[in-house]
Design brief:
It is a single chain. With about 100 residues, this protein is mainly β. The chain has a domain of about 40 residues: Rubrerythrin, domain 2 (Single Sheet), CATH 2.20.28. Helices cover about 0% and strands about 15% of the residues. The radius of gyration is 36 Å and the shape is elongated. The model has no long low-confidence stretch (mean pLDDT about 75).
Protein backbone atom coordinates (compact mmCIF):
# COMPACT_ATOMS: atom_id res chain seq x y z
CA UNK A 1 0.00 0.00 0.00
CA UNK A 2 1.52 3.39 -0.98
CA UNK A 3 2.45 6.07 1.52
CA UNK A 4 1.69 9.57 0.23
CA UNK A 5 3.08 12.86 1.55
CA UNK A 6 0.52 15.65 2.02
CA UNK A 7 1.10 19.31 2.91
CA UNK A 8 -1.34 22.06 3.76
CA UNK A 9 -0.78 25.20 1.66
CA UNK A 10 -2.57 27.33 4.27
CA UNK A 11 -0.80 26.40 7.53
CA UNK A 12 2.19 24.32 6.31
CA UNK A 13 1.17 21.15 8.19
CA UNK A 14 2.80 18.08 6.59
CA UNK A 15 1.73 14.46 7.06
CA UNK A 16 2.44 11.06 5.51
CA UNK A 17 -0.73 9.06 4.82
CA UNK A 18 -1.03 5.33 4.10
CA UNK A 19 -3.68 5.00 1.37
CA UNK A 20 -4.90 2.50 -1.17
CA UNK A 21 -4.50 3.46 -4.81
CA UNK A 22 -8.28 3.53 -5.12
CA UNK A 23 -8.81 5.88 -2.11
CA UNK A 24 -9.83 9.47 -2.92
CA UNK A 25 -7.24 12.23 -2.42
CA UNK A 26 -7.42 14.11 0.88
CA UNK A 27 -8.19 17.83 0.61
CA UNK A 28 -9.03 18.93 4.18
CA UNK A 29 -6.12 19.68 6.52
CA UNK A 30 -6.39 17.77 9.83
CA UNK A 31 -4.56 20.62 11.67
CA UNK A 32 -6.40 23.76 10.53
CA UNK A 33 -9.44 22.42 8.64
CA UNK A 34 -8.68 24.38 5.46
CA UNK A 35 -9.39 22.74 2.13
CA UNK A 36 -5.78 23.33 1.05
CA UNK A 37 -4.34 19.86 1.85
CA UNK A 38 -2.53 18.65 -1.30
CA UNK A 39 -0.55 15.59 -2.18
CA UNK A 40 3.14 16.31 -2.77
CA UNK A 41 5.22 14.84 -5.55
CA UNK A 42 7.80 12.61 -3.79
CA UNK A 43 9.57 9.30 -4.25
CA UNK A 44 7.22 6.38 -3.86
CA UNK A 45 7.07 4.80 -0.42
CA UNK A 46 5.32 1.55 0.43
CA UNK A 47 4.68 -0.79 3.33
CA UNK A 48 4.92 -4.58 3.08
CA UNK A 49 2.43 -6.65 5.04
CA UNK A 50 1.66 -10.35 5.24
CA UNK A 51 3.92 -13.33 4.77
CA UNK A 52 5.47 -12.05 1.52
CA UNK A 53 8.76 -13.27 0.04
CA UNK A 54 11.85 -13.72 2.12
CA UNK A 55 15.40 -14.86 1.43
CA UNK A 56 14.59 -18.16 3.16
CA UNK A 57 11.68 -18.97 0.82
CA UNK A 58 13.92 -20.59 -1.77
CA UNK A 59 16.43 -22.23 0.58
CA UNK A 60 16.73 -25.98 0.02
CA UNK A 61 15.27 -28.16 2.73
CA UNK A 62 18.47 -30.16 3.20
CA UNK A 63 20.25 -27.37 5.07
CA UNK A 64 23.82 -26.24 4.54
CA UNK A 65 26.16 -28.54 2.63
CA UNK A 66 28.26 -30.68 4.92
CA UNK A 67 32.05 -30.16 4.83
CA UNK A 68 34.14 -32.97 3.36
CA UNK A 69 35.63 -35.41 5.86
CA UNK A 70 39.34 -35.06 6.61
CA UNK A 71 41.42 -37.12 4.20
CA UNK A 72 43.73 -39.82 5.59
CA UNK A 73 47.48 -39.17 5.45
CA UNK A 74 47.99 -41.69 2.62
CA UNK A 75 45.57 -39.79 0.37
CA UNK A 76 47.71 -36.65 0.54
CA UNK A 77 50.67 -38.37 -1.19
CA UNK A 78 51.00 -37.54 -4.88
CA UNK A 79 49.71 -40.25 -7.16
CA UNK A 80 52.06 -42.20 -9.40
CA UNK A 81 52.04 -41.19 -13.06
CA UNK A 82 49.46 -43.02 -15.10
CA UNK A 83 50.56 -45.69 -17.53
CA UNK A 84 51.62 -44.23 -20.85
CA UNK A 85 52.94 -40.95 -19.45
CA UNK A 86 56.57 -40.01 -19.38
CA UNK A 87 58.58 -39.21 -16.29
CA UNK A 88 59.00 -35.63 -17.54
CA UNK A 89 55.27 -35.03 -17.03
CA UNK A 90 55.62 -35.24 -13.26
CA UNK A 91 58.32 -32.93 -11.82
CA UNK A 92 60.64 -34.43 -9.23
CA UNK A 93 62.84 -32.91 -6.57
CA UNK A 94 65.89 -33.37 -8.70
CA UNK A 95 64.67 -32.61 -12.20
CA UNK A 96 61.70 -30.25 -12.12
CA UNK A 97 63.32 -26.92 -12.99
CA UNK A 98 63.05 -25.71 -9.41
CA UNK A 99 65.63 -28.21 -8.15
CA UNK A 100 63.55 -28.97 -5.08
CA UNK A 101 63.85 -25.48 -3.61
CA UNK A 102 60.13 -24.61 -3.95
CA UNK A 103 57.14 -25.54 -1.81
CA UNK A 104 55.77 -28.02 -4.34
CA UNK A 105 58.32 -30.71 -3.35
Amino acid sequence: MPIYAYRCEACGHAQDVLQKLSDPLLDTCPACGARAFAKQLTAAGFQLKGSGWYATDFRNSGGAPKPAAAAPAEATQPAAPAAGTTAAAAPTATGGGCAGSCACH
